[in-house]
UniProtKB/TrEMBL annotation:
Record-annotated active site: D146, H221, S558
Pfam families per record: fn3_6, Inhibitor_I9, Peptidase_S8
Official protein name in the record: Subtilase
Gene3D superfamilies for the chain: 2.60.40.2310, 3.50.30.30, Peptidase S8 propeptide/proteinase inhibitor I9 (3.30.70.80), Peptidase S8/S53 domain (3.40.50.200)
InterPro entries: Peptidase_S8/S53_dom, Peptidase_S8/S53_dom_sf, Peptidase_S8_Ser-AS, Peptidase_S8_subtilisin-rel, Peptidases_S8_3, S8pro/Inhibitor_I9, S8pro/Inhibitor_I9_sf, SBT
Occurrences of domain Inhibitor I9 (ranges): 33-112
Subcellular location: Secreted, Extracellular space, Apoplast
Main localization (coarse): secreted
Cell membrane as UniProt keyword: no
Domain Subtilisin-like protease fibronectin type-III: from-to ranges: 674-769
Transmembrane segments: 6-28
Gene Ontology molecular function: any one: serine-type endopeptidase activity
Annotated gene: PanSBT26
Function statement: Required for arbuscular mycorrhiza (AM) development during AM symbiosis with AM fungi (e.g. Glomeromycota intraradices).
Amino acid sequence: MANRPWIYYGVLSFGLAVLQFLFVFALASTSNVHIVYMGKRQHGEPELVSELHHDILSHILGSKTAAKESILYSYKHGFSGFAAVLTHSQATLIAEFPGVVNVIPNSIFSVHTTRSWDFLQVNPCIADGILAKSRSGSGTIIGVMDTGIWPESKSFIDDFMEKPPSHWRGICQEGQQFNLSHCNRKIIGARWYYKGYKAEIGKLNPRDGVEFLSPRDAAGHGTHTSSTAAGVPVGNASFMGLARGFARGGAPSAWLAIYKVCWSTGGCSAADLLAAFDDAIFDGVNLLSVSLGSPPPLASYVDDVLSIGSFHAVDKGISVVCSAGNSGPFPQTVINTAPWVLTVAASTIDRAFPTVLTLGNNQTLVGQALFTRMDLDKFYPLVYGEDIASLDADQTSAGSCDSHTLNDTLARGKVVLCFQSRSQRSAVVASRTVLSVKGVGVIFAESPSKDVSSSWNLPYVQVDFTIGSTILTYMETTRNPVVKFSRTRTTLGQEISPEVAFFSSRGPSSISPSVLKPDIAAPGVNILASWSPAASSLELDASGRKFPLQFKLESGTSMACPHVTAVVALLRSIHPNWSPAAIKSALITTASLEDQYNQNVVAEGAPYKQADPFDYGGGHVDPNKAISPGLIFDVGTSDYVQFLCSMGYNNTAISLVAGSSIKCRSKSTKFLVNLNLPSISIPDLKQRLTVTRTVTNVGPVNSFYTARVQAPARVSVTVSPPVLVFNSTVKKQKFKVSFCTFIRTQGRYSFGNLFWEDGFHVVKVPLVVRTVIQDFYSET
Ligand SMILES: *[C@@H]1O[C@H](CO)[C@@H](O)[C@H](O)[C@H]1NC(C)=O
Ligand SMILES: *[C@@H]1O[C@H](CO)[C@@H](O)[C@H](O)[C@H]1NC(C)=O
Ligand SMILES: *[C@@H]1O[C@H](CO)[C@@H](O)[C@H](O)[C@H]1NC(C)=O
Ligand SMILES: *[C@@H]1O[C@H](CO)[C@@H](O)[C@H](O)[C@H]1NC(C)=O
Ligand SMILES: *[C@@H]1O[C@H](CO)[C@@H](O)[C@H](O)[C@H]1NC(C)=O
Ligand SMILES: *[C@@H]1O[C@H](CO)[C@@H](O)[C@H](O)[C@H]1NC(C)=O
């Protein structure tokens, strides 16, 4: 059982972040939802499985009626189990029942245009590009687990879509403001999951207009991710005039199946999420896009429903793409790290939103903003947040414009300069504070980052600390400092890109550092995509009217995830027989390490340093290269089971995840590094270690590859054999990589690459090694 009954899951973008926090606390005391997990289903008939669940519950609860009232879901397609409202002692009793593998207390998850597709060279005008070759992803069904969908968005018009395939078993589940007519040949399925959420958090009150008990999206997040993955092109799309152009999804001919598991008030229940996995597997999706997660500490792979649900999906050939989290740039913050999922980091694109500030001395400075609505052509008085702190504000946060720190008499009618601080990092909080004291604008100085927050009600410009200090110096040298904002412009191609986004969570994985995470980076900063007009009802324009947004710029690994989802959909249309592991391998080994000037990609956050695999895994996704990777590293279900054995989980727990009875042959940790991943990560090299990998040739039948190594610092690397020859009978080849170090210090991670090259393909395998001293502690 999980030690932490309250894992908080949330969507991984910033818009909802503040609301979600409130819910973490609301949850802790009320839950009694438990997930009773029974492994692979034992009967062919789903109805019999369901009956069995009721029987077990009746036995414990004393009556059939009580069982009926308590059960929320019967999971019967991909695996057997159910979710029910139980007391702790009832849960303990059920855990003893024959056939019950585990009882998991429920937990709460949370969620995570379109220049980005041109930036990635996913463009219909490229003759032999990935869109042409995949027929824009036709034939592939993308399941999206998120906050639902706004079906009227132009991104989901089905004019050129084919009918759903005959094997499709999904449904269009009706509910508030959502009926059968809201599904079409683009949205071929839509379901919603509310029982777990309701049982724990309590009923949503849909009458307040912020939620619909149906697949309809009240938050915007799910509409954004769905349209990024598979929206059809919409011309003249913009965010209040910014970023104007075609908004399009990466796989515009793919079908969408919507699984609404997260709610606009914040959070997604684990019981609901597992039910959605169960249905999606039954319905017949080809891949799943899951832009949500729960922050560290990470639950073990045998207790985390996202890891369990995705294991079953991958076992059935369904790729699962997840967001890496928004807790960067700090190390060991990456989430969703199971080796069978694709974990996506966020990167910047070459679009920017420069906004010129003019000071009273005519000095001009450039910041970034997403504000277009007010007449700005006028100087406003400028004050520093710390100088107008209210008397009871604490010293450290007044300058950062933390909530309730500003004196409203002194702020009224002025532009306030705020500096990000340790305790107050959020530009959004600063702008709310200034708005609440009737300020007219904000300049927020922060660590350099290209992630710009949008603002409706007041101009709000982000600058780096250098520019912030320049402004402060000006203010100190003049009696009546003033500032004028120019209108924000949209520029293309003028930013060095990609860079790994400041907020993107970093590796290594805190639970399994031998599995390199994140896997790959994709655009996730200032992405324009469809939005839910209902979500923006919370936003008022300058004159206090509701402002229904059709499109919105958003940032987060939530936005990066559907980019990779779309690329997986395109690859799947081209290579329908490739396993999820093969597709993942193709993406990682072909990912790019360079920006548009062929310089190494840089990571925001760790100041201007070259990005490393903990920032972006294999690198930045390169869709056209991934079509033809040359060699792939394949992994099957039995390999993942061996991995779980080496993680030290017991047979019972592993049987639970695998859905069948498992007896580990060996629990030796040496298998951890031998999982056949397209990367090698050794967290504890003690002197010498040899790692094995197997590659499968998917390129020309007669191929000849040679190894080239960029060794990590202080480590020598040898590859054996150094050449691999493939022909019509030899399709797979094994090789060994030996690592050796003579260091006698407790090391830090260093990075390198192994390349297999045939003159056309470059199969890049990231190498990550940390040296450790044997018996470090006993020697000191
Ligand atoms: C197996 O592991 C699970 C979860 O890690 C734990 O709850 C259970 O008690 C263990 N069972 C045995 C027989 O050790
Ligand atoms: C479905 O809802 C739409 C409005 O949202 C309405 O026009 C239509 O008549 C409804 N269809 C059915 C079958 O109820
Ligand atoms: C694009 O949309 C804007 C409103 O957002 C409108 O004013 C403009 O006329 C439209 N342009 C075209 C070419 O449709
Ligand atoms: C700023 O520029 C304007 C117009 O160019 C000029 O009239 C004004 O005197 C300048 N102010 C300062 C302080 O240099
Ligand atoms: C705000 O500033 C005014 C003017 O300096 C002062 O009179 C008032 O006490 C301050 N209010 C608070 C709450 O600090
Ligand atoms: C392929 O290579 C293997 C090993 O080099 C060799 O034994 C085999 O005869 C080759 N097959 C063909 C069809 O050339």
